Request: fold
Amino acid sequence: MKSLISSRAAAVAMALLASIPMAMGAGAAAPSPAAPAAEPSESTVVGIITIDGTVVKKVTAGDVKSKLAVLPPQLAGAPYDQIFPLLLKSVVTEQIITYYAGKAAIKSKPEYAKMVEECKKGAEQKLFLEGEIDKLATPAELEKSYKEVKEAAPKEDEYNVSMITVTDKQKASRLLQEAKKAGVAKFGELANKESMNKIPDGNLGYVRLGELPEAFRDKVKNAAKATIVPNVVEISMPDPSEPNKKVTTYNIILVQDKRPAAFPPFEAVKNELKAAVSSKFAKQVIKDLEGKAKIELFGLDGKPLDQKADAPKAGDASKAEEAPKAAPAA
Reply:
């Protein structure tokens, strides 16, 4: 449920990651931000994979876009143009593995047929359960869950934040002094000229503290409105091209405004609400289905199992929770 009030964190992270590929270059000046390019048609070729002199796959924009359906929650809210390079790389990697798996005749192995059959069963069960859950996750139920989450959500502020990101510490110090001298009104111009990220005017919009990198939070929280944070903020992030390596960036931060955070409207979080209540309804569906069946279980010795005896008792559960508390400190 936490994702309902922090889905924009992905966009902030991607904005910072966007500067890294440029930082890997030989110190070239960052270009001024351009307007987002028009999204290509699904048949547009965005990648060509050649192995041993033979083109084995032409990756299309449609291939890349299909990855949106399986994005992890932390990236689900990120702008498509910013995560596109990462998704494209993922598709290319999958296609290369598929090519070599084909050469190895994996489909002819007995294990392959067994795995395919298990996947079919899983898909059948998943689609059936989703249909049954949809019957229970009515608009009224979702509205009820929305009100509960909204009432329980902590009251917090959100901040309109802009930033200039570079990978040279001395340059960051110089830019901080320039920004202070030029004033808040000129911060956007300086960001467009010098920052390595591609955000127009360096502006992230309104974000909550939890959506920002940890190193930013206290700086932003303690800054007054229309104020440039007095010190350069240093953070380390994973290098997208080499996950085991990190890249350090130096950031000049402007806090333009502060206001009480508004809870997202129902329509904006309806899909997330449905996913959140699905677990509860899935248990209910399974319990109802099992209640319609006569179930007989037998142990390894062939004797009938006492199913009631296998159920955890309330007292046992409470004792289990208390046990760690009673243990002496190490």
